Amino acid sequence: MDDGLSDLLHRVVSLMGDAARRHSGQDSELTYSQLRLLGALEDVEPATQHRLAQSMGISDPAISRALRPLEQEGLVRITQDPLHARRRLVELTATGREAYHSNGKPLAEAFRLVLLKQGFPYDRYLADTLRLAEILEPE
Predict the structure, then answer these.
(1) I need a surface site. Which of 12, 21, 58, 92 has the fewest CB within 10 A?
(2) How far is the C-alpha of 18 from the C-alpha of 32, rounded, in Å?
(3) What sign results for the dihedral spanned by CA atoms 23, 103, 107, 51?
(4) Which pTM does this prediction carry?
(5) Cα torsion through 113, 114, 120, 124, rounded to 10
(6) Shortest CA distance to 76 belongs to which of 106, 114, 46, 103?
(7) pLDDT of the chain along its 139 residues, tens only?
(8) C-alpha of 85 from chain center
(9) Contact at 8 Å (CB) between 66 and 34?
Protein backbone atom coordinates (compact mmCIF):
# COMPACT_ATOMS: atom_id res chain seq x y z
CA MET A 1 0.00 0.00 0.00
CA ASP A 2 1.36 3.41 -0.89
CA ASP A 3 -0.59 6.39 0.31
CA GLY A 4 2.25 8.84 -0.23
CA LEU A 5 3.64 11.00 2.54
CA SER A 6 2.02 9.14 5.43
CA ASP A 7 3.46 5.78 4.39
CA LEU A 8 6.87 7.29 3.75
CA LEU A 9 6.97 8.98 7.14
CA HIS A 10 6.07 5.71 8.86
CA ARG A 11 8.82 3.97 6.89
CA VAL A 12 11.38 6.63 7.85
CA VAL A 13 10.48 6.27 11.54
CA SER A 14 10.90 2.51 11.28
CA LEU A 15 14.27 2.90 9.55
CA MET A 16 15.42 5.36 12.22
CA GLY A 17 14.51 2.83 14.91
CA ASP A 18 16.49 0.14 13.08
CA ALA A 19 19.49 2.47 12.72
CA ALA A 20 19.28 3.40 16.42
CA ARG A 21 19.35 -0.27 17.42
CA ARG A 22 22.40 -0.85 15.20
CA HIS A 23 24.10 2.25 16.60
CA SER A 24 23.40 1.36 20.23
CA GLY A 25 24.48 -2.25 19.84
CA GLN A 26 23.13 -5.33 21.54
CA ASP A 27 24.48 -4.34 24.97
CA SER A 28 22.32 -1.22 25.21
CA GLU A 29 19.98 -1.36 28.18
CA LEU A 30 17.38 0.98 26.67
CA THR A 31 15.55 0.61 23.38
CA TYR A 32 15.16 3.42 20.87
CA SER A 33 11.48 3.70 21.87
CA GLN A 34 12.41 4.01 25.52
CA LEU A 35 14.98 6.71 24.77
CA ARG A 36 12.35 8.58 22.72
CA LEU A 37 9.95 8.33 25.63
CA LEU A 38 12.51 9.70 28.09
CA GLY A 39 13.28 12.57 25.72
CA ALA A 40 9.60 13.35 25.17
CA LEU A 41 9.04 13.31 28.92
CA GLU A 42 11.91 15.73 29.48
CA ASP A 43 10.21 18.13 27.07
CA VAL A 44 6.81 18.08 28.84
CA GLU A 45 7.48 17.08 32.45
CA PRO A 46 5.93 16.91 34.84
CA ALA A 47 3.12 15.57 32.72
CA THR A 48 0.07 13.45 33.00
CA GLN A 49 0.32 10.08 31.31
CA HIS A 50 -2.30 11.33 28.84
CA ARG A 51 -0.26 14.43 27.95
CA LEU A 52 2.86 12.29 27.48
CA ALA A 53 0.93 9.89 25.23
CA GLN A 54 -0.33 12.84 23.17
CA SER A 55 3.17 14.28 22.81
CA MET A 56 4.40 10.95 21.45
CA GLY A 57 1.38 10.29 19.26
CA ILE A 58 0.46 7.03 20.97
CA SER A 59 -2.53 5.77 22.95
CA ASP A 60 -2.99 6.03 26.71
CA PRO A 61 -2.81 2.22 27.18
CA ALA A 62 0.41 2.12 25.10
CA ILE A 63 2.08 4.80 27.23
CA SER A 64 1.01 2.98 30.39
CA ARG A 65 2.63 -0.25 29.14
CA ALA A 66 5.77 1.60 28.01
CA LEU A 67 6.21 3.33 31.37
CA ARG A 68 6.05 0.17 33.51
CA PRO A 69 9.60 -1.08 32.83
CA LEU A 70 11.00 2.44 33.05
CA GLU A 71 9.39 2.89 36.45
CA GLN A 72 10.69 -0.51 37.60
CA GLU A 73 14.21 0.49 36.54
CA GLY A 74 13.92 3.77 38.46
CA LEU A 75 14.08 5.95 35.35
CA VAL A 76 10.66 7.57 35.80
CA ARG A 77 8.48 8.32 38.80
CA ILE A 78 4.71 7.96 38.55
CA THR A 79 2.53 9.54 41.22
CA GLN A 80 -1.14 10.27 41.71
CA ASP A 81 -2.14 13.81 40.77
CA PRO A 82 -3.19 15.52 44.02
CA LEU A 83 -5.74 17.57 42.05
CA HIS A 84 -7.38 14.63 40.29
CA ALA A 85 -7.29 11.16 41.87
CA ARG A 86 -7.62 9.26 38.57
CA ARG A 87 -4.80 11.13 36.87
CA ARG A 88 -1.20 9.98 37.09
CA LEU A 89 1.76 12.35 36.87
CA VAL A 90 5.03 11.23 35.31
CA GLU A 91 8.48 12.73 35.73
CA LEU A 92 12.06 11.69 35.09
CA THR A 93 14.21 10.62 37.98
CA ALA A 94 17.82 11.77 38.13
CA THR A 95 18.78 8.32 36.83
CA GLY A 96 16.31 8.63 33.93
CA ARG A 97 17.57 12.08 33.02
CA GLU A 98 21.17 10.82 33.03
CA ALA A 99 20.22 7.80 30.90
CA TYR A 100 18.60 10.08 28.34
CA HIS A 101 21.48 12.55 28.27
CA SER A 102 24.14 9.86 28.00
CA ASN A 103 22.33 7.70 25.41
CA GLY A 104 19.38 9.46 23.75
CA LYS A 105 20.90 12.86 23.07
CA PRO A 106 24.13 11.45 21.59
CA LEU A 107 22.03 9.17 19.38
CA ALA A 108 20.02 12.13 18.07
CA GLU A 109 23.26 14.00 17.35
CA ALA A 110 24.71 10.95 15.58
CA PHE A 111 21.63 10.83 13.33
CA ARG A 112 22.00 14.53 12.54
CA LEU A 113 25.69 14.19 11.69
CA VAL A 114 25.17 11.13 9.46
CA LEU A 115 22.44 12.93 7.53
CA LEU A 116 24.50 16.11 7.15
CA LYS A 117 27.50 14.08 5.97
CA GLN A 118 25.29 12.64 3.21
CA GLY A 119 24.29 16.14 2.11
CA PHE A 120 20.77 15.84 3.51
CA PRO A 121 19.17 19.25 4.21
CA TYR A 122 18.61 18.46 7.88
CA ASP A 123 17.60 21.93 9.07
CA ARG A 124 15.10 22.43 6.24
CA TYR A 125 13.59 18.98 6.77
CA LEU A 126 13.33 19.59 10.53
CA ALA A 127 11.58 22.94 9.96
CA ASP A 128 9.20 21.41 7.39
CA THR A 129 8.40 18.48 9.67
CA LEU A 130 7.70 20.79 12.61
CA ARG A 131 5.38 22.84 10.39
CA LEU A 132 3.62 19.67 9.23
CA ALA A 133 3.08 18.63 12.87
CA GLU A 134 1.65 22.07 13.66
CA ILE A 135 -0.77 21.85 10.74
CA LEU A 136 -1.94 18.36 11.68
CA GLU A 137 -2.15 18.95 15.45
CA PRO A 138 -5.78 19.11 16.57
CA GLU A 139 -6.73 22.37 18.21
Answers:
(1) 12
(2) 9
(3) positive
(4) 0.78
(5) -40
(6) 46
(7) 557 888 888 888 888 878 777 776 655 678 888 988 999 999 998 899 999 998 888 899 999 999 999 999 999 999 998 888 888 999 999 999 998 998 888 888 888 898 999 999 999 999 998 898 888 877 6
(8) 27
(9) yes
